# Entry
Amino acid sequence: MKRNRPIFREHFVLHKWNYVLGTILLSISLVLQLWVPSLLKQFTDGLQNESIHASRLLELSWWFTIAGIGTFIFRSSGRIYIFRMSRMLERDLRTELFSHWEKLQADYYQNQRIGNLMTHAVNDVNILRQIGMQGYFQMVEAAVLISLAVFMMAGTINLYLTLLVLLPLPGLTFIAYRFRTKIQSHSLKVQEAIGILTSRVQEFCSGISVIKTYVQEKEEIKKFTNENESNVEVNKQLIRSNSLFTSLSQGIVGLSYLLSIVMGSILVMKSTISLGDFVAFNTYLSMLIGPIENIGKVINLLQQGKAADQRIREVLSTEPDIKDEEGTIPLTLVKGDIRIKDLSFNYPRNKDHVLKNINITIPKGTSLAIVGKVGSGKSTLVQLLLRLYNPPKNSIYIDQHDIRKIPLKTLRSSIAYVPQDNFLFSSTIKENIAFDPYPYLDEEVVHAARSAQIYSDIMELPNRFDTELGERGLSLSGGQRQRVSIARALIKPSPIIIFDDSLSAVDSKTETNILNTLRTEMKGRTSIIISHRISTIQEADQIIVLDQGEIVERGTHLSLLKEDGIYKKMYSQQTTELTFIQAKLPSIQERKILIKRRR
Ligand SMILES: Nc1ncnc2c1ncn2[C@@H]1O[C@H](COP(=O)(O)OP(=O)(O)OP(=O)(O)O)[C@@H](O)[C@H]1O
# Structure
C-alpha cells in the first residue's frame, strides 16, 4: 500500500481521541504536581510565622498525599493510554512491513542487504514508536509543565527573578540537542563495532575447521584483537561525549540554581518575597529542568523519526513486480500440460540473455530432464515456471494458459519444488515436511519421509519427527537436509513436481532407492528433474541439454547416446569415473583377505 502521508501523522489522526484522553490525564497529573510547591510555600510560611497549628499541618499533609496519589494515578493512566497507542503503531507497522515483504519478488532480496531489512523492521519501527511514546509524552509534559510553572513563578512569586533564572536554561535545550546528535552517531558506531565483533565470532565458529586446518589461529586472533580495539576506541568517544554532555548540562543547571539561590535569598532578605515563595520557586525550578532538557532530545528524535519514516515509506511503496496481473483467469486447478514457446530471458539487472529461444513441450504426466554445465540456465528455467521471476508474456503455458494469466496462488500451489539450497526452517522435522498449509495426517508425513528415504534417519533422532532442527536445519547432514526437502515436495499433492539438482548430496545406493520410489510417486504428475548426474535422469521421457542458455541437444537417453554430443561426453566421463572408482575399490574376496590380515 502506498503511504503518502508521514506514518506517525496518519497513526495520530487515526487514534486522536485516545491521544487526547492520554493528554488530558497527563495534564491533570502535571497540574497536581505543580500544586506541591504552593503547598510547600504555605507550610514554610506557616512555620516561619509560627502560625501553623496541628489541624492545619494535618490538612496540609492530606493535600500533599492527595497531590501525590493523584499525580501517580493520572500520570500512570495517561502514560498507559499514550504508550499503548505507540505499541499498536509498532505492531501494525511490523505486520504491514512483513506482509509487504512477502509480496516482493526474489530479485528484491538479491539486491538488498539482510542487515538493511532488519534495520527497517527493528530500528526504524522503534524510532517511530519512541516518537509516540517518549516523544509525545515528553512534549506534552514540557508544554504543560513549563508554561504553568513559569506562569506560577512569574505570576505568583517574582517576574524578574523568573526571567533571570530561566536565562541560562535554553542553553540546556541546545546542548541536549547537539550532544544527542553526537551521542547518536557514536552509539551507531558502537553498534557497528559490536556487529563486526559478533560476525567475527560467528564466522570463527562456523569456519573453525578451516581455520584449524590452515593453522590460522594466530591470524584470526590478530584480526579479532584489532576489531576489539576499534570497539574500545568508539566506546571511548561515546564516553567522552556523554561525560561532556552531563558536565555541561550540570553546569547550566547549577548556574540557574546559583542565580535562584543568590538572588532569591537577597529578595527574601529584602522581604520582596517570603521564605515560602523562595522554597516554592526552587521547587518549580527543579521541576522545569528535566522537561527543558527533554525538548532537545525530542527535537533530535523527531529528526531521526523523519528519516525512519522516509525509509519505511520507501519500502512500503516498492511495488511487487510479480503479482496477479490484469486479465488473470480465475483458475483454481491445473492439470499439468506444460509448453514453453520461444522463451528468451535476461535477469532484470543484466541485459545478456541467460535463456535463448527455448521451446519445450511436456505433456501431462511425463518427465523432462535438464542437464548442462554450471551456469547454463537450468535453474533459471524452472524458476520462471514458478514465476519467481517474470517470464516474457506468452512464453510459458500450462494447460494452454499463459502462466502470467494463471493466479499466482494457483500456479505455485500446483507445483512442488525442491530447490537447490534445501532450505529448512528452525522448527521440527514434521513441520518442515508438512510445510504446505494443507493439514497433513501423521501417516502422510511418514509416507513422504519413507519415499524420500529419510525415514530411518529420522527414527534415529532423539525426538524422531518432533526433533527441533537448528538454524537453517544445520543440525542435519547435507544429504539428510536434501531428503527432508524432497519429502516436503512429495507430500504436496500437486500435478507438477520439480527437482533442482536434488540428489546431488546422496550416495548412489540412496539415489537408486529414491528414484525407485519416485517412479511410483510421480505417476500421473508432470515432472522436471535437473541434474548433473546421468544416472538420475536417464529414464526421463525426454532429456534436454542446455549450453549457454540454448537447447543444444534433445531426445531420450538412448537417442542422445547415439549422438556424439555433450550428453554422450558427460555419460562417458561419468561412467569412466565410476569404473575408475570401482576399479580402485577392493573386491569382496580382496576385502576378506585384508580383514583376515588385519586380525
Ligand atoms: N539473480 C540473478 N541475477 C542475475 N544473473 C543471474 C541470477 N541468477 C543466475 N544468474 C545468471 O544466470 C545464468 C544461469 O544461471 P542458473 O543458476 O540458471 O544456471 P544453472 O545451469 O542452474 O547452474 P548450476 O548448475 O550451477 O545450478 C548464470 O550465468 C548466472 O550467473
